[in-house]
Structure formats: structure tokens, C-alpha cells
Amino acid sequence: MSAEEPLFRVVRGVPTAEELAALVGAIVVRSRPAAAPPPVAESAWSRSGRPAAATPLAGPGAWRASGLPR
């Protein structure tokens, strides 16, 4: 592709400069690979709301173990 050849062209209508800028911005954003979100540090408080496999579900001591920190 030569430097003179456009990357895209408008085939219908007469867009304003702002509309063309929005189109170019959308194309640029869509052409970039999606970045992975940064890892979130998990706190003891957030872990306390999830059931754990090590916590007894039933039996002696299950009630007491359910309220203890892991």
C-alpha cells in the first residue's frame, strides 16, 4: 500500500471533521489488542465471604470453624 492510498473512504454522505475524527478514533481503539486487567490483591475480608473447601460443612466443630479466620 502506498502512502497516498487512503486506509478507508466514505462512500455515502458528507461527514464533518468531528465525525471523521470519531471514526478514526474508534478504528484505532478496536484495532488494539485488549489489555489484561491488572491483578487485584485479595484481602482477608473478601476471602471470608467465600466458602472454603477446608472448612467442615457438617459435623463436630463445623459451627465454630465457620466463624474462625482461615
Structural topology:
Elements: H1 17-31, H2 44-48, H3 62-66
Explain the overall architecture.
GO terms for molecular function: acetyl-CoA carboxylase activity; propionyl-CoA carboxylase activity. It comes from Micromonospora citrea. Residues 37-70 are annotated as: Disordered. Residues 49-62 have a biased composition (Low complexity). The chain is built from 3 helices and no strands. The protein is mostly helical and 70 residues long. It has a domain at 1-33. The protein is rod-shaped.
Strand content: under 5%
Whole-number average pLDDT? 79
Order of helices and strands: HHH
Helix content: 25-40%
Low-confidence stretches: none
Cα distance, first to last residue? 61 Å
- Biggest β-sheet: count, sense, barrel? none
**What is the global morphology?**
rod-shaped
Pfam families: ACC_epsilon
Region (Disordered): 37-70
GO molecular function, one term: propionyl-CoA carboxylase activity
Organism: Micromonospora citrea
